[in-house]
Amino acid sequence: MNKVPFSCKVRTVIFYIAWSFCIFFWSVAIVLSLPLRFEIRHYFATHWSDSTMWLLRVICGLKWQVRGEENVPQTAVVVVANHQSAWETVFLPLILRKQVWVLKRELLRIPFFGWAIASVKPIAINRQKGKRALAQVLVQGKQRLNAGYSIVIFPEGHRFPYDAPIKFKQGAAKIAERLAAPILPIAHNAGMFWPRSGWIMPGTITVEVGKPVEPNKRKADAINAEIEDIVRQMRDKIQAEELAKRKLI
């Protein structure tokens, strides 16, 4: 493994300090925007992502590029992406402003930050409830989709190293099956630059957006197998390209 330059360590520390202030500022601002109509409040809230991406670019030299942006539909879909880093949670609102997340309800209890998240109507579930949690996702998911908001799910469940095998849980596929909603597959290599436990490295993250996958009255396991394979292939391709740039293969 290459040694991390001291400058990257310094920049990472500076970024986290600046990001803490950024999160606090936006959390308070979003909570104070509660009197506004939901559509306005939600659109305003997504701009915390722009601030974070700016900090990453200016402080850490971390940029990004998107391939297949033409595949992003104008209608609401179920969005699935591989999960390697905090980066993709920040990035996704930049290409889909009208989105809500499926997330664990414990996040809503964090002062200010959790309150801000709650104000944009995520689908907050108790992961221990199993079928009851799925029923909640289906009911609230239908409401969000009908209102024009895409549903974002990270089907791996939590962050994994960039070279870990991809294994999707079936939540997103079950939503697609039950609600006849298309799935938009997205892959990225953010973990090669901002790993779960590590320093932030400069460079350009690549995001690949695949074509929407229609459920076509198929069962969840068939849908899940297809989107898992699509995301895996896209991820492996862009990571191989990055490794080639680094002359590691």
Content of β-strand: 5-15%
Q: What fraction, in percent, of the residue positions are helical?
A: 40-55%
Radius of gyration: 18 Å
Q: What is the spatial order of strands in the main beta sheet?
A: 1-7-6-2-5-3-4
Order of helices and strands: HHHEEHEHEHEHEEH
The total count of helices amounts to: 8
Q: Report how far apart the termini are.
A: 13 Å
Description:
The chain has helices at residues 6-32, 38-45, 47-60, 87-91, 113-119, 131-146, 171-179, 220-245; strands spanning 62-67, 78-81, 99-104, 123-125, 150-153, 183-188, 203-209. It has 249 residues and is α/β, with parallel strands linked by helices. The chain has one domain: Glycerol-3-phosphate (1)-acyltransferase, CATH 3.40.1130. The longest helix is centred in the N-terminal third of the chain and has 27 residues, at 6-32. The radius of gyration is 18 Å and the shape is globular. The mean pLDDT is 94.
Which terms summarize this structure?
single chain, Glycerol-3-phosphate (1)-acyltransferase, globular
Q: What's the topology here?
A:
Blueprint: H1 6-32, H2 38-45, H3 47-60, E1 62-67, E2 78-81, H4 87-91, E3 99-104, H5 113-119, E4 123-125, H6 131-146, E5 150-153, H7 171-179, E6 183-188, E7 203-209, H8 220-245
Parallel strand pairs: 1-7, 2-5, 2-6, 3-4, 3-5
Antiparallel strand pairs: 6-7
